[in-house]
Amino acid sequence: MRLTRRGILAGAASLVASPAVRAQAGYPDRLVTIVVPFAAGGTTDLLGRVVAERLASRTGGTFIVENKAGAGGNLGVAAVARAPADGYTLTMGTVSTHAINPSVYRKMPYDHVKDFTPLSLIASVPNLLMVNVGLPVRTVAELITLLKREPGKYSFASSGAGTSTHMAGELFKLNTGTDIIHVPYRSSGQVTQDLLAGQVHMTFDNITVAWPHVEAGRIRALATATPERLPFAPDLPALSEFIPGFAATSWHGLFAPAATPPAIVERISTEVQALLREPDVVEKLKKVGVTPVGSTRTEFASHIAAETARWKEVATRAGVHID
């Protein structure tokens, strides 16, 4: 085929004029909202605000966080699934909203795979097993003994039915053969208040929320729900030391509605991966026990698939269903 100067210029002009290229070049030219489907003050909110701040700095655009809590995160995420697929409404998603909820809610207001484009896995966050300081146990072994001695007497709190902290508790019950009453709350803040007050006996919660109370001696941490001990807290045992293979880690990522223009998807994903390599961001997150990830879109999609299968098995074994 003979290439002429006119043909080359025409091809270049069509490339410049393509909607995808125009969308990427001009994005963002107005307000971008990142929906956090949980209450303010929690880990998802913290990470959403870090991402919004750094995306604004890196792109020169305006990014804000909107908290829209309810139904274990389903309310806010469903709103984004219905939003225009133009890159101006995004959502923070978690192990709850994009791996656990599809298996525990009988009716889901969105399809966690078909309705979204995964942008990047932002971070993984360890959960801690904690008890009220008045409970007469100081080790995981002592806790299991106490729970088995008086089945059905003690309670564990979570930040909502179907959340990662709820399912961590269910996984603990399955693996230890214990009978503990689940008490769901609407936020981690409420869980912390009632654990401090002794209204509930134990909980699993994100290290970002719990650690200040542990350090102050107001809550007793027994173990981390990770396969290995944390560099952040090397003296704290891993639950896997008592229950082989135990792992119940929270994770958080960024999603766009399905059919968002590929150029915008790629722009956001690339920027998120880059901001999570910024030394000040890495230091800030690691100080509160968070491990920054910054995965590619393909890696994130694979992670979601694996986690969905894993938590579906746990939900089935535990008989967890929410109408």
Automatic annotation (TrEMBL):
| A Pfam family annotated for this UniProt entry | TctC
**Keyword tags:** Signal
- What range does the record give for the signal peptide? 1-23
Q: Is DNA repair there in the keyword field?
A: no
Which Gene3D superfamilies does the UniProt record give? Bordetella uptake gene, domain 1 (3.40.190.150), Periplasmic binding protein-like II (3.40.190.10)
Task: Tell me the InterPro entries matching this sequence.
Answer: BUG, Bug_dom1, TAT_signal
Family to which the UniProt record says this protein belongs: Belongs to the UPF0065 (bug) family.
Q: What is this protein called?
A: Tripartite tricarboxylate transporter substrate binding protein
Taxonomic source organism: Phreatobacter aquaticus
